[in-house]
Amino acid sequence: MSDTLLQIRNLEVDYLLDKGAFRAVKNVSFDIGRGEIFGLAGESGCGKSTIAFAITRLAKSPAWIAGGEILLDGRDLLKLPEGEMQKVRWRRVGMVFQSAMNSLNPLMRVEAQFHDVLHRHTGATRAQSRERAEAMFKLVGIPTGRLSDYPHQFSGGMRQRIVIAICLALQPELIIMDEPTTALDVVVQREILEQVIDLQRSHGFSVLFITHDLHLMAQLCHRIGVMLKGELVEVGEVRQVSGAPAHDYTRRLWNAIPQLPGRPELAGGVA
Amino acid sequence: MNLAPNLSLPAVEPVIRLENIERSFGAVQALRGISLSLTPGRALALVGESGCGKTTCARIIARMDRPTSGRLSFRGRDATATGTREEERAYRRDVQMVFQDPFSSLNPVFSIDHHLSRPVLLHRHAEGKAGVAEAVSTLLADVGLDPAVTRQKYPHELSGGQRQRVNIARALAVQPRVLVADEPTSMLDVSIRLGILELLARIKRERSLALFYITHDIATAAHVAEEIVVMFAGQMVEWGDTEAVIADARHPYTQLLLSAVPDGARPFIIGESARFLERAEKVRALSRPTSTAVEQVGKNHFVRALAAQN
Ligand SMILES: Nc1ncnc2c1ncn2[C@@H]1O[C@H](COP(=O)(O)OP(=O)(O)O)[C@@H](O)[C@H]1O
Ligand SMILES: Nc1ncnc2c1ncn2[C@@H]1O[C@H](COP(=O)(O)OP(=O)(O)O)[C@@H](O)[C@H]1O
Ligand SMILES: [Mg+2]
Ligand SMILES: [Mg+2]
């Protein structure tokens, strides 16, 4: 096993529209190391989610992967038969989306939803699922007594933590988080993301963290990629991308974020 | 000593004044003793987490909802009870709202021109075809959109930021005195928020509008508002001059809110999550009980005492 978990090579993704193909992802390449938190930043519409869906091959028509490779441990996911891919999805690559907290089944107790996922992917018995669910609830800081509650009995932030807990229960090697906290308040956002970095440290998984907020990204990622209109314009260590961005666009992105007065400027204070 | 939370500067007559507003939905006390004033040419930001009562407060000001108790005055007159038809019409024209979701607040089947022509005509701010067209163009230019390009477009052809500008133009079309903006940037990318905030600050200044800016993001509040109210669970916990509240936050909830604003210069520290979670829970528990004790800590800077210390 090498230190690199995921390699994206020259990825191209189109949306096939009536008026022709629209290239949403243009020749994008980057790596994510084992145990690395890699951030993908950029304005809305630049192609971040399209990449997330391509990795999990959940992209639906009219999305079309026009070229490139997505190597997980050296194996090209784009070439796997769908049956094989199903074993990779959730088991090896987990996903938490912005609206994930609304994807819980409102009619099922949370415990049953754990079992549903664990049984489907690992064949776990009810007792095994219960044990795993309790362990996961402890990890994300929710009292285990609440496993028998229904989703609507939790706040939005708690529901998002439950989705993360369900995702972690399968012990994936990579978790893709696409704007996982964009719909939440800053305090709740921080509660969840601090937890993610602690869990990452204790469990060792890798994270692809997607957001439009560079400041937030710099607080938890090791390396950052910046996208502009389907292209990856800059990739680097967090310190470099925040302190000395190479690309003009990265600098503009930093300066466009409303900050509290009196906070030090990042990106070298470039105007 | 009367420390009634009053945000108006004595020299300026407020357009809207809330005194001790309460609003309950069954057992839920959505607003507890809200008192604040909106003054021409100034912005007041109402900041707090989701569910704390911000929209309820906005709806009361916009007359889309009624308080359970308390007093609402408009241009010096008591407007708590429903007035005459004429008074209600004037109120509704003078107080306009911009909503959070720029996507759902415009009708997809109508052009931008149609969206803006209607209020202009309805409130007779222009006459004749040419007059209305001229008024619409001026509005679009005022909110930073190119009239020639934008007029004939449909909502889906615009970006989120552009749509929010159209919503602001539509509110301005009736020449209101008060603009209530309920989280106008929270569904937009951080990178385009600044432009909308600058626009709000400019129209407030140029048109002497009283702006009520609602947000859960205290960093954006600092960009538009001279005064800020931090609210938690329906109670104002800290309020006053924006600079004072941010630079010298006294209430633990304000401090928590400030510490959670993303700051790339301060990476999260591994192993801290349990401590932050515990702190946040503790601050919420401390801030929730009703407290009537208010302390003045600066010229225009007030803090509600924690209930336990009463
Ligand atoms: N289902 C779709 N059909 C057509 N175009 C799409 C579809 N989904 C996304 N796009 C387009 O692809 C581009 C990238 O979108 P997306 O990956 O969602 O961006 P991001 O996640 O960075 O906001 C955008 O221009 C968007 O309009
Ligand atoms: N029409 C209503 N019926 C019942 N409860 C409501 C209603 N409107 C708001 N609430 C409750 O009042 C509280 C404040 O809500 P809201 O003003 O929407 O908060 P915010 O805008 O700060 O997120 C919440 O607990 C909410 O559930
Ligand atoms: Mg996206
Ligand atoms: Mg609201």
Largest sheet of chain A: 6 strands, mixed
Estimated structural class of chain B: alpha/beta
User: Radius of gyration of chain B from the CA trace?
Assistant: 20 Å
Low-confidence stretches of chain B: none
Number of helices of chain A: 9
Q: Give average pLDDT of chain A, whole number.
A: 91
Describe how the helices and strands are arranged.
The complex is a heterodimer of chains A (271) and B (310).
Chain A: E1 4-17, E2 20-33, E3 37-41, H1 48-56, E4 63-72, E5 75-76, H2 82-88, E6 93-97, H3 110-122, H4 126-139, H5 156-169, E7 174-178, H6 186-203, E8 206-211, H7 214-220, E9 223-228, E10 231-237, H8 238-243, H9 248-255
Parallel strand pairs in A: 3-8, 3-9, 6-7, 7-8
Antiparallel strand pairs in A: 1-2, 1-4, 4-5, 9-10
Chain B: E1 16-25, E2 28-38, E3 43-47, H1 54-61, E4 69-74, E5 77-78, H2 85-94, E6 95-98, H3 112-122, H4 128-142, H5 147-150, H6 160-172, E7 178-182, H7 190-207, E8 210-215, H8 218-224, E9 227-232, E10 235-241, H9 242-247, H10 252-259, H11 273-287, E11 294-298, E12 301-304
Parallel strand pairs in B: 3-8, 3-9, 6-7, 7-8
Antiparallel strand pairs in B: 1-2, 1-4, 4-5, 9-10, 10-12, 11-12
Residues 15, 24, 42, 44-50, 62 of chain A line the site of one adenosine-5'-diphosphate.
Short description:
The complex is a heterodimer of chains A (271) and B (310). Chain A is 35% helix and 27% strand.
How is this structure best described in words?
With 271 residues, chain A is of the alpha/beta class. Chain A has nine helices and ten strands. In chain A, the strands form two sheets. In chain A, strands 6-7-8-3-9-10 form a six-stranded mixed β-sheet, sandwiched between helices. In chain A, helix 6 (186-203) links the parallel strand 7 and strand 8 (206-211). In chain A, helix 4 (126-139) crosses helix 5 (156-169). With 310 residues, chain B is an alpha/beta fold. Chain B has an eight-stranded mixed β-sheet, with helices on both faces. In chain B, helix 6 packs parallel to helix 7 (190-207). Chain B is globular and about 65 Å long. Chain B starts with 15 loop residues before the first strand and ends in a 6-residue tail after the last strand. The structure holds adenosine-5'-diphosphate (ADP) (2 copies) and magnesium ion (2 copies). One magnesium ion (MG) is lined by residues 54-55 of chain B.
